[in-house]
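Incident review: delayed structure delivery

Summary: a single-chain prediction request sat in the queue longer than the usual turnaround. Root cause was a stuck worker, restarted by the on-call engineer. No data loss occurred. The affected request and its eventual output are reproduced below so the record is complete for anyone auditing the incident later.

Affected input:
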Amino acid sequence: MGRTRLLHDDVFRRLCRARALIQEQPGEPLTVAQLAAAAGLSPFHFLRTFREAFQRTPHQYLQRVRIERAKELLQRGDLSVTDVCFEVGFSSLGSFGALFAREVGTAPGRWRRDMHRLVQVPGWVQRVVVPHCFFAQLGPAPLLAA
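Output delivered after worker restart:
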């Protein structure tokens, strides 16, 4: 069984500041030194305690945040896969595609196509469908102006 050590509240708050920096600037080339400075810890102590607190290294956490942001951008559909790759902070389309496929289970372009098939424009944009039982509860149907 693994040994878990409780972190002091102050250290945990410092780590949360660094984690927030990752979440706010996922496209930026953040270094361990910058993140450690944001947490007010030495780089080695920061790496060890970050992993202990969040069960992944800062780099793994940053990659996860970038992949989640990429999924959001891909689902919107207004950027190409290449543009999404660079927007979320990757410098290589190949490494982005490989990581995305490993984490999500499919290539970015395929994931976007699958999402667009699942999430289509709602039908109420053209018309609103209301079940008859709803109107039955209201009484006689009101006259609608044509």
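Verification: The CA atoms of residues 123 and 129 lie 8 Å apart.
Action items: add queue-age alerting; document worker restart procedure.
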